[in-house]
Each structure stands twice: as structure tokens, then as C-alpha cells.
Protein 1
Amino acid sequence: MKVILCEDVAECRETLYSHIKKYFTQNNCHPEISVYETGEALLADSYALRSAGIAFLDIYMPGINGVDVARKIRETNEDMVFTFTTSSLDHGLDSYAVEALQYLVKPVGYAEVERVLNKCMKLFSDSFKAIEVLSGRLTVRIPLRDIMYIEKFDHTCYIHTPMETIKNYRSLNELEREFAGEPFLRTHRSFIVNMRYIEDIAANEFIMTNGAVVSIRKNNKLAIKQAYRDYLFKHSREM
């Protein structure tokens, strides 16, 4: 998850950045926070526009204002959550066009930022949950939502994501305990799958969205398949 902060006044920018950083540190989350001084600089960063989920935008900036920045972003990112910072509420009605979460009137205190980010954490809770594994000599933080499946082979666990495969030496049992309450399913002594990425069910296998085949242990096949069907039923009711 990436967080955007766009504010042209240095003092306000530093204060707001400090509040955002404090919040995530206290909640043991470490999203990337990208800071911009103008709307033009933000709109030029195509990666941020695609990957960010939360944006704090100052309304009154030289050049393009915060509301118009949000309109531009909304054209390609329907899910980003906008919070506007302002010294005036004159643009209140404009926020409806971009579905802003909230206005924060300057000077912005920590308690106000905390309330906004608490709402965001509920909206994006899956984006902040992650595991940390040692891969080589580096500690790698992997968002749970990015894990497609985990495969154990010859005392090594391979964590497969849409972008890469990460090799580490934590046991599959240890990793499974970290997934408690999440949509992960132990299908075999050598596999854990993220049920979000299951495309189809075969006789003794799950077919993943990337075409990978994950084995289902025969002695518990019916229960494993039923656990996946229960997940689909629950997910369909929540949509």
C-alpha cells in the first residue's frame, strides 16, 4: 500500500507527514509514503497514481488545485481514498464528485489524522497485513494479499506472488499459523493456497489463476474442497 501526501506549504507538509508516519508506526504498519509539493508533480508520477490507495491532498495549491488533482486521479483509479486538507470549506460540494472521505481543516492535529486513518485501515485492512521472511540475507515483507500459494520442497518454502517467487527457510507449519483468520487453506503437507487466487477445482488439485496446479491431499479431499466452497459462499454474501 502506498500513501500520497500532496501539500505545497513546507510546514504543513512536514507536520502532516509526521502525523501519518506516527500513526502507521504505532500500528506496526510500514506503507510507502510519497510526498509532493504540487499537483503537477503528483500527476506526473504514473506509478503512484496506479499503486496508491490513500491520498491527502491540499486544496489550495499553485497551479492545479487538490480537487482537480483528485478528479484526474479518479479517471484511472476508482479505489483511491481522498482526504482534503484546507483552510476553507468553500469546496465542500466539489468533494462529492470524487467521493472524498473527509476534509481536514488546517492546522491539522494528530487526532484528526488518526480518525481518518482508522477509517482507511478498515477499508484497506488486507493491504496492510503482511508477513516477514528471511530470503538470502535480506528480510522481505510480503503483503498477504500478494501471496498466491506457498510450496515446500526439500526443506525450502517458495512463496509465489504474481510478480516473483521468494525462497525462504521458515517451516510451512510456522507460516500457516501466521495466516490464522485469513483466506488461506492448507491443501497438502507441501502446499498452502490463498483462496482468492483459486481459479478452478479438479479431481485432486486446485488450479490457480496463473495456471499453477496445487495438490489436494487425498485423505482429506472432501473437507478441503468444502472449506473452499464455504469461502466462496461467504465471499459472495459479502459482495
Note: The radius of gyration is 21 Å.
Protein 2
Amino acid sequence: MSIKVVATNRKAQHEYFIEDRYEAGIVLTGTEIKSVRAGQVSLKEGYVQYRRGELWLVDVHIAPYEHAGMWTHDPKRPRKLLMHKREIARLASILHEKGYTLIPLRMYLKDGKIAKVEIGLARGKRKYDKRAAIAKRDEGRRLQREWKEYAKR
């Protein structure tokens, strides 16, 4: 079983605390899957919405396929996610709690055929949380530089 990562949401780790991760299938049209295979996907502003017992991927941009002609798709249309009913019901109950949201973390192809989306149950970070994460990262980099200098001696 091979996995080819098509797109990642790098900003998600900075903007949110990711508490849990789930795998979901995604319903795509023919031209969309061709664009996904070409890697023309952007997850930056995307999120997952719960509507009438179903999960929908909203604001994810899948570029129109070049060779589609007049039968192309809308790049930002909502796309249905495929998960078990129990998982969806459990996520829906969690989403009604204050401060939780579902965001797409990465999109990948399983065995080169099936498109999957990894979604994360996330809580938004406050400004001071982001500053603390940046300070921690900078401190780690500084220590790495010092260790590298020490190892050269």
C-alpha cells in the first residue's frame, strides 16, 4: 500500500492545536481526480462542515483540469466526505462543543487510485500560544547551531 501526498496544510499546525486525526474518502468528479493526481490542490483556507448527517469539505481549491474542455468543474465547490456513520455522529457531537473545528491536514492518493483526506479535530490557538510556539522553535534552532559549533571543535 503506497501513499502519495498531494497537498498539505502547513499553516494548520501554526493556527490550531490538532487533538485528533481522521481519514476520510472524498467524492470527486472525473476532472477533479485528474487535477488531484497532478497535484493541483490547495488546502489553505479549507474546513469541514457538518450538514444533515454528512461531512462536507468546503473552500478547498482543486484547479480545473487543463484538457477538460467545456466539461470542467467549479474549483471551490463543496465536496462530500465519506466516513462511517458512527464516526460522523461522534464528530458532530464534539463539534457542538465550544471552540472545536475540523480542518483538512493533507490530501493523498492510496495506491495511486483512491483520494483520501486526513482531517484534524482542532482547537484554535490564541495569539500568545502562537508566540510561545515561535519562541520554542527559535530556541531549538539556537541550540542546534550551538551544538553544531561545539561538535566542530
Note: The helical segments are 12-15, 30-37, 85-95, 127-152.
Protein 3
Amino acid sequence: MSKLHYIILLIVVLAIATLTYKLSTTLEDTVEVTDPKLRHDPDYFIGDFVATMYDNKGLASYFIKANYLEHFPDDDTIKITDLKINYHDKQKQTWVTTSKDGIGYENIEVLHLSGDVKIENQPENPDKKLVLLTDQLRIDFKARQATTDSKVKILGKNSTINANGMDIDLDTGTLHLKSQARGHYVPN
């Protein structure tokens, strides 16, 4: 190769190096550095867990079992997948709530459940069993209340009730249907 070929090759390599440098500095200038406090990334996750939540007297208030949990520090929320919650009312009757997804606030004292939400009581007498079905539910364990504005279906041994929205007192088990309640009862 002649000197001319080496000079042309050197010029081409220098041109490519200069363009690469210019492109990389231009890209660095346009990339915004996001404040980590503004990002919604989990800081920890847990798989297959059981958590016991206690009241201010130190007694077990409710239990949560789930397949997966993620905590987000930017808004201090907890995302839970495939969860099951057990709790008792004042008459010591056990209630079980299941859902596909949940978002926890205030150290899981407030839960927003979504996706096939199912609430069942566990009475000694199977004839008194109730199953409540909805697609969304907000549970506030501090206030001992659960509420939804979504459609609700309540199944008993001989009855079916459909309504729009409900409020539940978790201490007494009292249920208030908000609107358009329609029922069907078949006596034995």
C-alpha cells in the first residue's frame, strides 16, 4: 500500500472516531437523570409469604398469605399477588378474603383488592355460609370496614342477591347494600 492509501485510511478512521465522540456526547446531554425518589421501582420483594398483623393490644388482628409482594419506597405502597386474608369479627367468626391482586397502604392496614375478590365466612353451621363476590374491594383494618362501589353477588344456601356496591362492618359482619339490590330465595 502506498502512503496515500495510509493517509486516506487514517482520515477515514479519524472521521469515524470524531463522529462517534460527537454522537456519544450528544446522547449523554439529552438523557435525563431521573431523581430516584420519583421513580416507581421496588426496593424489595418477597415470594410465598405469610404475615401476621397485630392490633394496638398486641393481639393478632389479621393474617395475609400471598404468592408475591413488592414494596415501592417512593409512595410506600405494597403490591401483592394472589393473596388470602383471614380475620375474625367480634363473635370470633372467621372470614376469608381472596383476590388476584392487592395494593397495600399504611403498612398494609388499608388494602385495595382487585380481580376475583371473594369473601367467605367460616360458620360452624354450613347452612349459614355466605360467599360475597366482586371485582374490587377496599379494606380498612384500622376502621374495620370494607367497601366497594362495584357489582356484588352474595350467595347463601338458598339465596342469591345482586347489588351495586356494599359496605361491610368487619367487627359485626353487618352488610349494607348500596343500590339496585335484587334477590332470589328458594325455600327448602
Note: Residues 89 and 173 are 7 Å apart (CA to CA).
Protein 4
Amino acid sequence: MSIMESMNIGANALKAHGLRLDIHAKNVANVDTPNYVRRIPVLNATEDISFHGLMNTMKEDVFGVGTLPYLQGGVRFSGCVEDPTMGDKIYRPGHPDADENGYIRASNVNAAVDIADAILAQRAYEANLALINITKSMANRATEIGRS
């Protein structure tokens, strides 16, 4: 893997985990908003690194017997899905969003879950930032070795 590929993997992960943090922040901000449906970020691997995917890759390279194929790796943000759990029904007959029986649907956001997920996303962001800094340091050291 080249230095630039390592930087690209880190940059894509920074983008994905940054978007993940934004979604969790919006969820927490809307914890008391009626009819708000919690959004769950979806992250996927950039390549199929499952056993089945690895076997299919090796099958295509018949003459590379005994060597594992090169897989770039990384993560990408694939979008969001809505949380299917329903929020509680609250009786508020004067509310503009109330149904014909006077009930509104509370948000289905659990702030503790979204804060915990945001902390995980923040730590993943920081780990990928460290990856980029280490890669940059390696590149600087390599140029210093080349000068001497």
C-alpha cells in the first residue's frame, strides 16, 4: 500500500465519521421534537472483505496461488435509515400536529444511545486523524532518508 492510498483511506474515513457525528448531533437536538424519527447512519466497507468476497477475488487470479489478493480497505458512508421504533403517544389536543383524537407522536430518539454512538464516532474520527498524521510523519522521514 502506498502512502497516498493510506492517506485516501484515512480521508474517506474522516468524511464518513464526520457525517456520522452530524447525524447523531441532529438526533440529540431533536429529542423533544414531536414526530421526529431518529436517523441511523450506515457505514460499509469499500471492498468486500468477507470470506466469500476474498474467495471470488482469488478465483479470478488463478496464477497467484498462495498469495492473498491486495485489498485496499476503508469505509464509506452509505446513507441513513430511519429507526422503526415508534415514539410514545402524548395527549395534546391543542397541538398543531395532533391527530383527530388529540394525540401527538413523541420523538423516538434515546439521547443516551445517540450520545454513546457519537462518542464512538468521535473516537473513530480521532483514530483516523492519527493515521493520517502517522502517515505524514512516515513520508517526512522517508524524504529525510533520501536527502542523506
Note: The radius of gyration is 23 Å.
